[in-house]
Specification:
It comes from Amycolatopsis lurida NRRL 2430. The chain is about 15% helix and about 20% strand. The chain has 1 helix and 4 strands. The chain is globular and about 35 Å long. The chain starts with 16 loop residues before the first strand and ends in a 9-residue tail after the last helix.
């Protein structure tokens, strides 16, 4: 992610969702792709009060592919 101030903030949007792997009320991250060309990520525990990290689709793709490849498995221990 770069520090591009031209990215939208994605604050106040509806349409946030979290993974089906997230257990009930446990905290997780939520994502939102309702603004074309951008993906927002926020802390579900904070909801509307959470800061939102904004990524472009190619950045999310690199992360997801890395996760599927096991590159972040060390974070699970």
């Amino acid at each position: 992610m770069n520090n591009d101030s031209s990215r939208p903030t994605l604050l106040g949007l509806s349409g946030w969702w979290k993974s089906s792997y997230s257990a009930g009320s446990a905290g997780c991250v939520e994502v939102n792709d309702s603004v074309k060309g951008y993906v927002g990520v926020r802390d579900s525990k904070l909801g509307e009060n959470s800061p939102v990290l904004v990524f472009e689709p190619h950045e999310i793709k690199a992360f997801v592919l890395g996760a599927k490849n096991g590159e972040f498995d060390h974070l699970l221990t």
